[in-house]
Every structure is written in structure tokens, then in C-alpha cells.
Amino acid sequence: MLGRVLIITILLFISCKEEVDPIPSRTYYMGFQNSAPRYDNIDIVLQALSLWTPRADAAMITTEVPWKQLLNGVTVNDYVLSEYKGLVDYYRILDLKLWVYIDPQNGLDRTNDAVDLQKAGKSIADVDMQLLYQKFVIAMDSILHPDHLGLALETNLIYAAAPTSIYEGVKVAANNAAAAIRLRNETLPLSISIQAETAWNKFSGGPYAGIAKDFTDFPFIDELGISSYPYFGFSKPNNIPINYYSRLIEGKNIPVFISEGGWPTESLTTADQSFVSSQEIQRDYFTQHGKLLDEVKATAIFQLPFTDIDTDYLPADAPENIVYFTSLGLVDKSLQPKLALSIWDELYNRKLTK
User: How large is the angle between the packed helices 127-144 and 164-184, nearest 10 degrees?
Assistant: First the structure.
């Protein structure tokens, strides 16, 4: 009799323990864009790849349209096959979900067209450039077969910062490309990304602005990408409100994922920006970020640079504002882990619930 009571007691204890201490879970895929501190050494590129792929179940390719190559006669198919097909085949072997994001504008200067379009005297406002962008989008989709496709990046920031002609060009180009993709693939999730700090008016200091215009101007979206670099708006990660992402989609039933973002480890002071950071602060950001992801029930999170950027190997024409993004990695330029990598790994080791 005593033995039966003891067994029942043990079973009840185990049951209660499972209720109060469940296995942690996550709703979101986790991944990176392939990155390295420098690209003149293939061994370093491969080392970085071998370090991030075991701690990811998704991968991102985000790119501006290769305007220079396409305007010089390279076909869209040849470019995609030479630049991306082999890498994507490798991702497929690893069973990584693939997000592809194509930027018709200037990723590091939202006030203007892509640099190579400017050099060619062209603009995304031009119909022929919109068509070239559309051809590139179709090639990326038909050759790489992504699981998710994004057609414009940080649209609210483009609207706030760029001339109207450029914003309207991006809008027309993205909507026409979406229509073209839908003729070929009815089920592929399409999206744009918006910039969280712009939506919250962190750059200008005004009231919360939201993203209603983006939903109106890009009605094709099935899911929403969010770009967020909150060190431009908050001195400490813990100051980021828990509804930082969820407020953006209040009243809407739409999946959300983080398409890019992060927090640097290096402090920086320039004529335009100043912030203090460290490895400890970056670690705190990833801890806080996990709470934001849970709050919005995110479907994916992408930390684009897995590694820091070795500034000694940047090209001479690299834009000056790249200094804001050179220490976002979870490993440094020597591929040594930073403190935040352990938080990423803790989140990744949760059970993925789809």
C-alpha cells in the first residue's frame, strides 16, 4: 500500500513540475544572411558559414538589384545562377527555410536611388528600371524557389526620407512585381519590410506614426517584415517597450518577422549620432528581443550579419554610415564569440512550434 502511495506521489510531483516548468518554445525561425568579416579570403567565409548554420533553421538573402551588372548586359538568369544558386543549394541540403528580399532602392541611403542607378543617370522612377527590377525579381523566384519573398525594404523610411518620385517608383515597381509573381505562384508569401524606429518616430522625436500607409500602398503583402535598429532610439535595450512590434499590427491579423536589425557592441560618436554600447549591452538586447518576439508571436528573426565587419578591408567607396553597422555580429572579426551569442543559442535551443 505504501509503495502505491509513493508511486502516485512521485507521478503527481512530475506532473506538477511539467506544468510550472514547461519546455521553452519559440514560434519563430532563426537565421542569418551569409556574412564574413572580409571576403578576400575564402577560408574565413567558409569558417563563418560553418559557425552560423548549426544555430539556424532559416537563411536570408537580401540584396539590392545588381544594377551595374544588368545595365552592362549581364542577364538576370546568369547573375542569379552565378551568385546565388550554389549557396541556396547548400541551404537546401541543410533544410534551411529561405527568405529572399530584393531592394529596389538604396539600402544604406534611403534619401536616394541605388548608387549604380545614380551613376548611370537612372532612377527607380523610370519605367525601364522598374521593368528591369521586375525581371530580376522573377529570376530570383523562378531559379531559387524561396519560401518567402520580399519586394521592397523599409518602405516607410523611403517615404519619409526620399523624394516622392523615388517612393512612387518603388511602390509601382513592387506592386507590379507582386502581380507578376502571383501569375506564376499563387501561394508564395509576399511581403515588404518597414522600419520600426521610423514607425515610432524615434528619429524625429514626434508621436507614434504607425504604418497605415504601408498597408494601403502595398496591399499585396501576406506577411510583414520589420527592420529594427533600436540603438538609434533607445539608450538601453530594456527601455524598448514590450509592444514595440505588436503595436505595429494592432487590428490586423498578419504574420510578422524581423527581417534585419540588431545592436552593436562598439560605442560610436559621429556628427549625426552618438551611442554607448558594449558586449554586455548587446547581450541585454537579445534577452529583451526574445520578449518582443514572443509578444508579437513572430514567425522568424534574421540577424543579417553573423560576424563583425573588418573595416580594414572595406572598399574605398564604402558609404560613411556603414560605421553604424560594423559591430552588429554575434562573433567578432576574428570569429570569436561575443556574450550575446549565448542568448541567441538559448533562444535557438527552444522547441520550434510552427
Answer: 40
Tens-digit pLDDT string for the chain (354 aa): 445 544 444 444 445 544 454 779 999 999 999 999 999 999 999 999 999 999 999 999 999 999 999 999 999 999 999 999 999 999 999 999 999 999 999 999 999 999 999 999 999 999 999 999 999 999 999 999 999 999 999 999 999 999 999 999 999 999 999 999 999 999 999 999 999 999 999 988 889 999 999 999 999 999 999 999 999 999 999 999 999 999 999 999 999 999 999 999 999 887 777 889 999 999 999 999 999 999 999 999 999 999 999 999 988 888 888 988 999 999 999 999 999 999 999 999 999 997
Q: Which residue has the cell 512612387?
A: 168
Q: What is the DSSP secondary-structure string of 191-207? A: EEEEEHHHHTTTTT--S
Query: Angle at the Cα of 292 (from 288 to 298), degrees rounded to 5?
Result: 135
How far is residue 152's CA from residue 168's CA, in Å, rounded to a whole number? 12
Q: Report CA-CA distances (Å) from 51 to 322, 341, 345, 347.
A: 24, 11, 12, 16
Q: Find how far residue 172's CA is from the centre of its chain.
A: 23
